[in-house]
Amino acid sequence: MATxxxxxxxxxxxxxxxxxxxxxxxxxxxxxxxxxxxxxxxxAHFKALNEAYDVLKDPQKRAAYDRFGHAAFQxxxxxxxxxxxxxxxxxxxxxxxxxxxxxxxxDPRAQRASAARGSDLRYDLELxxxxxxSGIEKTIAVQALAACEACNASGSRGHTAAQxxxxxxxxxxxxxxxxxxxxxxxxxxxxxxxxTIADPCPSCEGEGRALKTRKLNVNIPAGVDxxxxxxxxGEGEAGMRGAPAxxxxxxxxxxxxxxxGRDGTTLVAEAPITFTTAALGGCITIPGIxxxxxxxxxxxxxxxxxxxxxxxxxxxxxxGRGRGDLMARILVETPTKLSKDQRAILEQxxxxxxxxxxxxxxxxxxxxxxxxxx
Length: 374
Fold this sequence. Notes:
Binding site for Zn(2+) 1: 148, 151, 201, 204
Main location: cytoplasm
Family: Belongs to the DnaJ family.
CATH topology of the largest domain: Chaperone, DNAj Protein, Chain A
Subcellular location: Cytoplasm
CATH architecture of the largest domain: Ribbon
Mean pLDDT: 83
Domain CR-type: 135-213
Strand content: 25-35%
Number of strands: 15
């Protein structure tokens, strides 16, 4: 079974590019074959690290790997899914079956489609915790190749049809004999499209697409978290001369919240209380992520560091129902400023202490006394 690329580099699945690069450099340096006298095991591990980094450093390959795993790069799929297409929805007609058996060079139609399809895009989207809780529709600006309006994506000045490339016969690739070997490369005449334009459009130089900034409305579901990836089909770069567009992948990043931390669907908050509330018990109020006020009952004798759980007051469940919990971590605060009367009351209380009020302290000092021989 192939090793998971993230585990191989020792990084979490949501790691950013900087973390992945640093982890790769450290791991590659530690197991470089030159440092281990040509050890075959180290050499194999070094090659595996390079393979993992080659995929994870590339946004397109990484998005495909996160979705399909190692199957995304098997059978020459180039990260387009286990069946060679971005949708991964299985074979479609005789062309795909023909290509899967005999290869792309034997099937010019599949080759042209692969070369002409637009690239996938990555967009990093930052959200507040409240937006992630409720879900939101966001308007984003994406600068990418879009269908050329001047030629209506045809690539031709007069909207005339493209002609089959004379250099490759429409295959998109050419072969050259070098001794006993046959070298196959992208056709320089049509750049892999299999077609040429007699009178190219001056706006897009015959590609049928031009750089443009588009505004898109995207729906973000409730419950997304750091590292969540959302695929928006068909909103990537436009394909050449009307070919299908790639996909847009949204990568979610969470802003730091002033009150809450997050662990999955659980919200975590620190709640300072006075030492009198800790001793006598009471009630405190904190704002919930949904805007509602949450009352937490403090039991008498609670200790600093203990937690109180409020069921159903946490984050929304992604693609599910209900909510997680809220965990309030209690911090007992010792007063730093006392009035004369308050000090007198506390001194009076201290004079009445027997040690039974604080069993942990009593037990600690008993152990100290025993350790010192009584």
